[in-house]
Amino acid sequence: MTDMYDEKKVPEFSLPPYPHEEHGSEDGLGRAKNPVKYLQSIEQRARERQVAYETVRLLRRDVIECYRKEGVNHYENCKEPVERYARVVLKHDVGQVHPNYKDEGKKYGY
């Protein structure tokens, strides 16, 4: 059997920002003050990005399944999955968790 008609098990919670290590100099170039923490923060940012992309992929799959299941009635019956998908997709960086940067205007390339 397929799990198409089962209740979805998606937790609704938000994660706190993770610690971020800055580069050593004021202009953001040069050696990091703590290279190990800096590499850990880069790896954590990559993991958070992948989680955000997978979340979008799962939500998109739910929308597609609903459209296929409901057929011509999808305008009325698929409103909730489409709204959840749109809420996540329209966020900056598709809802990716970011650290608390010292300079909030700086996006560090992402």
How is this structure best summarized?
The protein has 110 residues and is mostly helical. The protein has three helices and no strands.
Description:
It contains three helices and no strands. The chain has 110 residues and is mostly helical. The model has no long low-confidence stretch (mean pLDDT 78). It is found in: Mitochondrion inner membrane.
Radius of gyration: 19 Å
Mass-distribution shape: elongated
Strand content: under 5%
Query: How far is the first residue's CA from the last residue's CA?
Result: 41 Å
> Largest sheet, if any?
none
Overall pLDDT, averaged?
78
The share of residues in helices is: 40-55%
The total count of helices amounts to 3
Structural class assignment: mainly alpha
Q: Tell me the total number of β-strands.
A: 0
SSE blueprint and pairings:
Layout: H1 35-70, H2 74-77, H3 79-89
Helix pairs in contact: 1-3
Task: For this entry, give a set of tags.
membrane; transport; NDUFB10; 110 residues; NADH dehydrogenase [ubiquinone] 1 beta subcomplex subunit 10
